[in-house]
Amino acid sequence: MISDGLSVSGSKGRSSMPLRLSEGDSFRLRCSAVTTSPEHTHLHVTWQIKSGSAWRDILSLTHEGKFQPGPGYEERYRNGDIRLDTGANDTYRLSVSQASSADGGAYRCLVSEWVRGADGSWQRIQEKSVEIASVSIQRTALDVVISTSNVSVTERDSLDLTCNITTDRSGIFQAEVMWYFSASPDDTLADAQLLLSMDRDSVVSDSTLISLSHVDRNSYRLLVRDVDVEDSGYYFCEAAIWVPLHNGSWHKVVERTSAPVSVVVTALEPDYDVFLNASKTPKFSDDPTELHCRVTNAQDTEANLRFAVSWYYRQRLRSDDVVADELLATMDADWTLLPGDRSRERIQNGEIIFSKKSADTFSLRIQWTSESDRGDYFCVVSAWSRHRNNSWVKSKDVTSAPVNIFWATQDYTLTVEAVKLKPFFVAGHTFEMTCKVSSKNIKTPRYSVLITAEKPLTDQSSPNGTTRIISLNQDSVVRLEDWTDQTRVDGVVLEKVQENEFRYRMYQTQISDAGLYRCVVTAWSPGGGGMWREAVNGLSNPIQIDFQTSGPVFNVSVHSDSPTIYQGEVADLLCIVTMEGMALEPDDMSFDVSWFAVRSFALDREPILLASLDRRGIVTQSRRNGSSDISLERISPLEFRLRVHGCEDHDFGNHYCVVTPWVRSATGVWQREPDIRAKPIFLSVKMDVLNAFKYPLLIGIGLATVIGLLSCLIGYCSSRWCCKKEVQETRRERRRLMSMEMD
C-alpha cells in the first residue's frame, strides 16, 4: 500500500485566474506538483484545454521524461510556439506563442504518479488535476479603405490613391501594405497584378513610374505617373498586421483587402489635319503622276507621336454603283512598306514608288500612268502614340479628301485586212497572203501577228477547228505555234514587209491544208521601263484555201475471219482500203496506217495506239504490259494486216485503223489526204476450258497412280520382312469325358 503523497497546485496557490489576451499575444501558465511518497515514483504532467465540453491534451511530459504534443498541436510544438518547461520548486510552465482564437478556454494541469513494477512495467498509482486559468482571445480588428471611389484621369497625367487602415490593436505592431491591379472587379489576388508593396520594415519594392509612400501611421499613398489607357481597371489595397514574438520573430495576426476602386484613363487623342494634293498630273497615257499627303497642325510629332499612311484607289463609275476601295500600299510607323494586291507587282517592278519625304509628308508616284489608273486617290494617316513601355499604339485615323486623276482619251481602233496574192493555185504550189494593219489613237504602235487556220470538222488534228500556225511578236521574233508537220518544218514563213504590213507564205501546200486563214493582230504601245503594253486586238477577214480536185476517194474498213478467239491463239485483223473514182497506179499512192484499240464495249474510253506503219514501211509499236505480241505488215497495196500473237484476256475490245492517204500529183509532189477512220470491230477473247484443265488432270491422275503403287509396295514389304513373328503354341491334352455307365 503506497500512501497518498501527491499534491498539485496553481501559481501562487490560486486554483484559477482569468486572462484576456489579443490575437497574436503570448502567455505562460504555471503549476506545481510535489509527491512525498517514500517509493521511487515518477510524475506524468499534462497540460489540457477545455473550449467545449471535453478536455483536450496540449503538451505532456511523460513519466519516462519525454515530451508528447496532443492531437493537433504537433506542428506548433515543432515550431516552438508551444513549450513545456520545468522550473524550481517542482514547477511546470506552459508557454504559448502567437495565440489564436482556438487557444481560448479553460486550462488545467493534470498530474499522475507512476511506479515501475518488479517486471519492469509501469503502473499508474494516482492522478490529480487543478485548473490554472481561463483564457479569452480577442480578435484584432482591421479595416482597409481607399479614400476615393471611382476615379477618371487623362492620359499622361498622374494617378493618386490613398489606402487608410484602422485597427484596435495596441502595443507594438507593424503594418504591411500591398497595392494590386486587375482588369475585372471579380478577379482574385492570384489573378491580380501586384503593383507595389511596403513590408513591415517600410521597405518599398522597386518601380520606375509607380511610387508608394507612408503618409502617416495609418495612410499609404500610391502614385502612378504618366498613365496611359492600359492603366484603366480596378485598384485595391491589401494590409496585414504583424506583432513581435518573444524570440524576436514576427507573426501576422490579421489581413484584410479593400474594396476595388474603378479607374478610367481617358485617351489623349492627337489633333491634326491631312491634306492631299497632286504635284504632277498626266495629260496623256504613260505620263507620270505624283501625289503628296501632308500632315498639318500636329504637335509633338518627334517625341511621342508617329504617323503611318495608307494609300487607297477608288474607281469612278458613271452610275451610282458602290465600288469598294482598293488598298495600294501601307507605310507603317517604322517606315515598312506593305503593298496591296492591286499594286504588288507594279511596286516590285518599280512602276509605282511610295516614299516618305519627312516625318509628316508622304508621296505616291506612278511612273507611267495607264487608263486603268484613272480614278480617285486618297490617303489615310494613322497616329501612333508612345506608351510608358516605349511601345507604339494606334490612337487615331484621319482620311484626306480624294484627288481625281483623269484625262480625256479616245478609244483605240485597229483594222486588219487580209489579201490573197494568188487567186488560183493547185496543191503543191505556194500559198501567199498579206495582212495590212491600220490603227488610230495609239502612240507609236507596234504589232504582233498570229496566223490561224480553221480546218474542216473532219480534220482530227484540231478538235476545236482552229489551229495556231505561226506568230511574229512586236520585236519581230518568229515562233512556230501548233505546226506539227515535221516534213515541212520550213514550209511556213511569216515576215514583216513594212511597219504595218506582214506576209505569210506556205510552201508545197497539201490537200489537208484546206481551210480559212486569218491574221490575229495585237497593237502594243510603249510602257514604262522599256516594257510594252497591250493596247487593242484585231482580227482580219478570212482567206479560204479550197482544192478542187477530181482525184480518187478512199474508204477504209476492218475485217476479221474470226473475231472470237481463245486465249493463246493468233488474232488476224485486216485494214482494207478501197478506192472510188479515178484509178491510180500503186507507185502513185501510199498510206500511213495506225491501229487503235478501245478496251470497252461502248467505246467510252480513250483509244490506245497499238502499232503504226508509215508510208516508208517503218513499223512503230507501243509498249505493252502483257505477254502477247503484235505484228503489222502490208500484204497488198491496199491491205494491211495486224496480228495479235498469244492473245490474253486484256486484248479484247474494239479495234480500228486510221489511214492517211498520200497521192503523188502530176508534178511529182506528194499530197497528204485527210485521215480516214474505219468502223471498229470487236475482238472477243475466250478461255479454252478443256485445254486449261487437260494438263492438270493428267498430272493429277499420274501422281495419284504413282502414290498408290508406292503405298502398296511399302505395305507388302512391311508385312513380309518387318512384321513377321514366330508363334509357338502350347500343346494341350484333349481328353474326352467318359460316361458314368462306363465307369
Automatic annotation (TrEMBL):
<feature type="domain" description="Ig-like">
    <location>
        <begin position="552"/>
        <end position="660"/>
    </location>
</feature>
<keyword id="KW-0812">Transmembrane</keyword>
<keyword id="KW-0393">Immunoglobulin domain</keyword>
<keyword id="KW-0472">Membrane</keyword>
<keyword id="KW-1133">Transmembrane helix</keyword>
<dbReference type="InterPro" id="IPR003599">
    <property type="entry name" value="Ig_sub"/>
</dbReference>
<feature type="domain" description="Ig-like">
    <location>
        <begin position="142"/>
        <end position="239"/>
    </location>
</feature>
<dbReference type="InterPro" id="IPR051102">
    <property type="entry name" value="IgSF_V-set/TM_domain"/>
</dbReference>
<feature type="transmembrane region" description="Helical">
    <location>
        <begin position="695"/>
        <end position="716"/>
    </location>
</feature>
<dbReference type="InterPro" id="IPR007110">
    <property type="entry name" value="Ig-like_dom"/>
</dbReference>
<dbReference type="GO" id="GO:0016020">
    <property type="term" value="C:membrane"/>
</dbReference>
<dbReference type="InterPro" id="IPR036179">
    <property type="entry name" value="Ig-like_dom_sf"/>
</dbReference>
<dbReference type="InterPro" id="IPR013783">
    <property type="entry name" value="Ig-like_fold"/>
</dbReference>
<protein>
    <submittedName>
        <fullName>Prostaglandin F2 receptor negative regulator isoform X2</fullName>
    </submittedName>
</protein>
<keyword id="KW-0732">Signal</keyword>
<keyword id="KW-0675">Receptor</keyword>
<feature type="domain" description="Ig-like">
    <location>
        <begin position="270"/>
        <end position="399"/>
    </location>
</feature>
<feature type="domain" description="Ig-like">
    <location>
        <begin position="23"/>
        <end position="131"/>
    </location>
</feature>
<keyword id="KW-1015">Disulfide bond</keyword>
